[in-house]
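User: tokens in, sequence out, please.
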């Protein structure tokens, strides 16, 4: 941490990158770091990620880079692999700040803390190392980061340290009641999307695994936006008796797989068998490319599960998947 803090003190004119399909953690963490850099007298901006949603636009707008901005150093925030760098970005990255495990190969240097529940925790520690006072504005941004990546402090990644940091952010002025109303209220589109996902729900491995999907047509019928679908990955893993939850979402040319696990099963091991796969022990994701039907996507996702945990590949589960492949999802 001292080396990273020293690097940041030595330079100026920073551009901060958030990841594709930016969530509350990448945006809140990057904006908080940007505010902290400015407090140190640095020039700092966020790259204008074209996928920032309406929910987070008001929080990020004060930090977004003007057209033609000049910068000397680039920092990526919460991007585990190069494929997650924002759409339209093709430059070099000088520093990667993250909480995902594993080494990246796209940044000249990096600081990661896989024990952190959210990248917001890493940025909180970095700001302290830099001697930046956590203002009410920074506290709100870090609360967005930490609370959204822990599902409102309900996910298994939440630790005692997470709660201590959240308490410090409240003490610093974060209006958690107002923020929670923005971050966790469910719009009608979200409820309709959840209904569609649950209508496609199938159980495998004796009920230990749950797999569900949402096609682009179903998303459109639900009137759901990307804001509405944030953190929907944990929907089926919350079902009693389910230790492995897989949600498949159709994109323009592939299916995105989100995996949430409990009970000793490792989501990152499952998703490493998919394209662009990786993540945390209990929360990971990847993509299935070249597949169009939800039935085929489900078979591919289950194959990744069974290759990782062959003991779960019961004859009953295999027959179920093959039936889905033949007869539709």
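Assistant: Sequence out:
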């Amino acid at each position: 941490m001292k080396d990273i803090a020293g690097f940041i003190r030595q330079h100026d004119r920073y551009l901060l990158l958030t990841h594709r399909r930016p969530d509350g953690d990448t945006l809140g963490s990057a904006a908080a770091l940007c505010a902290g850099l400015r407090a140190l007298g640095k020039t700092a901006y966020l790259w204008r990620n074209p996928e920032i949603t309406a929910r987070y636009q008001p929080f990020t707008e004060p930090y977004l880079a003007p057209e033609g901005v000049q910068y000397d150093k680039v920092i990526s925030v919460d991007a585990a692999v190069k494929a997650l760098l924002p759409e339209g970005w093709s430059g070099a990255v000088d520093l990667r700040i993250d909480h995902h495990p594993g080494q990246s190969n796209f940044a000249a240097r990096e600081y990661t803390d896989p024990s952190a529940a959210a990248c917001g925790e890493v940025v909180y520690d970095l700001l302290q190392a830099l001697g930046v006072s956590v203002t009410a504005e920074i506290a709100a941004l870090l609360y967005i980061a930490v609370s959204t990546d822990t599902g409102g402090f309900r996910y298994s990644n939440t630790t005692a340290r997470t709660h201590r940091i959240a308490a410090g952010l409240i003490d610093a002025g974060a209006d958690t009641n107002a923020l929670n109303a923005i971050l966790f209220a469910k719009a009608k589109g979200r409820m309709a999307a959840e209904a569609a996902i649950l209508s496609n729900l199938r159980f495998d491995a004796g009920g230990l695994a749950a797999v569900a999907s949402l096609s682009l047509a179903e998303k459109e019928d639900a009137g759901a936006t990307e804001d509405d679908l944030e953190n929907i990955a944990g929907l089926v893993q919350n079902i009693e008796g389910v230790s492995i939850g897989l949600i498949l979402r159709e994109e323009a040319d592939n299916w995105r797989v989100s995996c949430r696990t409990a009970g000793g099963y490792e989501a990152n091991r499952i998703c490493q068998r998919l394209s662009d796969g990786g993540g945390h022990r209990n929360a990971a994701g990847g993509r299935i490319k070249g597949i169009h039907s939800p039935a085929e996507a489900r078979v591919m996702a289950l194959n990744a599960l069974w290759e990782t945990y062959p003991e779960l590949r019961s004859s009953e589960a295999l027959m179920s998947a093959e039936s889905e492949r033949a007869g539709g999802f």
